[in-house]
Every structure is written in C-alpha cells, then in structure tokens.
Amino acid sequence: MSSFDVAVIGSGPGGYVAAIRCAQLGMKTAIIEKYNTLGGTCLNVGCIPSKALLDSSHHFEHATKHFEGHGIEISGEVKANLEKMIARKQTVVDQTCDGVAYLMKKNKIEVFQGTGSFKDATHIDIATAEGETVEIEAKNTIIATGSKPSTLSFAEIDKTRIITSTEALKLKEIPKHLLIIGGGVIGLELGQVYRRLGAQVSVVEYADRIIPTMDAALSKELMKAMKKQGGKILFALLCKKC
Length: 242
Description:
Blueprint: E1 2-9, H1 13-24, E2 29-33, H2 40-45, H3 47-65, H4 82-106, E3 110-113, E4 115-118, E5 123-127, E6 133-143, H5 165-168, E7 177-181, H6 185-196, E8 200-205, H7 216-229, E9 232-235
Parallel strand pairs: 1-2, 1-6, 2-3, 7-8, 8-9
Antiparallel strand pairs: 4-5, 5-6
C-alpha cells in the first residue's frame, strides 16, 4: 500500500493546483480522478471548451456581419460548420488536459484513476474502471470534487432533447430554438455561441436579473449585449404547474 503526505480527490483547477503546490512544498502527493482525463469540469466540459466555441462563433459572426464594413468581400455564402467547430474545441481541450498530466509528472505527483472513498480518516479506497480496488494511505486529504449540472423535478434529462451543458458542447447540428434554464455564466456562454450561429435562444432565470451571483452592473451590461444579439430573457419560476 502506497503512503502519501497528501491525497487530493478531484483533479479540477482546485485539485490539481493544490496538488502541485503541495508537491512544491516537499510533500509526497497523490491525486485521484474518476474520469479518464485530468482537469475536471473546467478543462473538459466547462470553461475551456465553451471559450473555444465562443471564439469560433465570434469569428463566424464577424465574417457575416462586419467583414464588408472593413472592405473584405467573400464570394458565396459563409456557412458555419459545427462539426469542425466541435472538433477544434476538442483539440483545445485535449491539449489543455495533456498539459495538466505533464505538470503531474513534472512535480512527481502520483495519479490514480478511479473513484475515491474514505475507508477511515487516513485510508482511501480507489475503485477503478476495471473493477479493482486500490487502497492508499494519506496523512492529509483535500476534497476537490467539484459540481454537476442541477436536475429538474419535472423534466428528465434524456441527453437528447433535454440536455445539460455537457451535451451542448457536442451537438450534431445548430438548433432552431434553444431554451436555456438558468441565466448563469455557463448557460449564457453556450446561449451566445448558438445565437451567433443562427439559433433562436431564450433564457429563463428565477432571479430578477441574469448572472445574479455577480455584480449588478455586469448583469446590466450583459443584458444589453444579449438583447442586441437577439436573445430573449424571461424572468420566471419554471415549474410543472404554476
């Protein structure tokens, strides 16, 4: 059984940065990740891929709406190839995740693939995808397991018609109408991506403004930008029977 000064459960931005710092301070460190790649939600299905698609959609919108004003003429129709955009997004994700894996090796952090659970205060069982269980000992443990999209009591997420942000990052076609429940950062980013590509986008937010956890001035400016782009913002309680 391997023993460590610190074990980190979760390899997202909180987990892998903590692991690197512990290793730099001379602690023998392990990191546990249940998915196949390191980086957590942010690098795999959050900030990084959404920013990559935002970048691609921005180029498309600029070409269709602003090139002519700069004296740039394009013969023929400018089309959005969503498949290629998704492929480029995945390339960006893969490069970023590989970078985290490199940092683990560079800082001599041992990586365990599997789901970690406490056996007691200093022992952790790691259930691997192969059905095996690996036990390690750690004097200290950092829990950095992140979060997942919320579910709705009245709507089952079938990942086909009703999807989460994860599925929205790999759609096969641009939707005609995209309804987004939640006016937070993730929903608005992906809404802006598909609005730029031609989809009709409606956002339903329970609070009295979008991005309610952030500064009100930011909310006001973002609201202006969304409306200018043609997005529809609804402030309402969404439920089965209201």
